[in-house]
What we know:
Layout: E1 2-6, H1 15-25, E2 29-32, H2 41-48, E3 54-57, E4 60-61, H3 67-81, E5 85-90, H4 94-99, H5 109-129, E6 135-136, E7 141-142, E8 165-167, E9 173-175, E10 179-180, E11 183-184, E12 190-194, H6 197-206, E13 209-212, H7 218-235, E14 244-252, H8 255-269, H9 275-280, H10 284-295, H11 299-303, H12 308-314, E15 315-317, H13 323-331, E16 337-340, H14 350-361
Parallel strand pairs: 1-2, 1-16, 2-3, 3-5, 4-5, 5-12, 12-13, 13-14, 14-15, 14-16
Antiparallel strand pairs: 6-7, 8-9, 10-11
Helix pairs in contact: 1-2, 3-5, 5-6, 6-7, 13-14
Amino acid sequence: MKFDAALAPMHLPNVPAVAKAAEAMGFDTLWTQETQHNPFLPCALINEHTTRLKTGTAIAVSFARSPADLAYIAWDLAAQSGGRFMLGLGTQVKAHIERRFGMKWPDSVVGQLREQIGAIRALWACWQSGEKLNFRGEYYKLSLMSPFFNPGPLPPSVPPISGGNWGDARGATSQFPGEIGGDARGVIPIYIAGVNTGLARLAGETCEGFHAHPFHSPRYLQEIILPAIQEGAEKAGRRRRDISVSVTAFVATSPEEQNFVRSQIAFYASTPSYRPVFALHGWEEVAERLSVHAAKAEWGEMFGLITDEILETFCIVTDEASLPGKLKERYAGLADRLTLYNPFTPGERDAFWKRLVEAFQE
């Protein structure tokens, strides 16, 4: 299990110091996020100021961008980093796509994201191997790539990733067209994020990785998410081990952290599309009450609905010394990569982070 770190929201001048510290600490990957800042710009700085540390987006909002925009950005970051960049995409929810980004919400979330991934890979195949660009789907039609706009293949310093089969825009299985080193392989790993089974199945069909939402329980991963990934993989003639499951975990080692996690659980559980997570545990009525309070901005009432039982279902509540063992026990067989919801900040709890990193390197 790889142990990764999350980059806190920050202005770009502060990123290099965090990147250097994360590499020195021994993290495998430093993930960026799209909350208060653009998720791609920090990746360029992380690449520039490190030599080993991987980076990726967890996540960039896919429906806020065109496939070409995502393809160009990922291509440049992969080239700059020598293959250390991973493209992580998330759909967000309808209200944010329409009212924060001013974009259209699709009729089919899974359908559009499937096409978006296919279109990105079609562009990469065009640039890498010279294949004619001719992607035609319901949401995207791409057929123009003149030499002036073609960045060409990635440099030899970018190694191919292990491949297999990926689903195309129509759901049938098709071999990725980019020929690298004589093998049909992908160029840049694509992760997608999700809470429900549709996107988990899509990850199994088409992606190298899946970002599990921090709003999860081990039971939800075991009974809902992993079987959906397996189902998608089998449909595309792939194996479960072809998809890396990246999990972000809630942990609390103090009363203050417990209160913070309660507020985060309450916030996420109030989202109607996330309700199946609570429903699995018999708390659907609690989720409905949280939604009502959220609509009225009654945040104090929401916090009080997260009982100790709910907290400990979604969060590891323990002391710092016991945390490494608890994490390994909780996520053994469920996660291939693990990140704490708490972001990594150099100079704050360095001994805490070092203990965790070393535990996962044993």
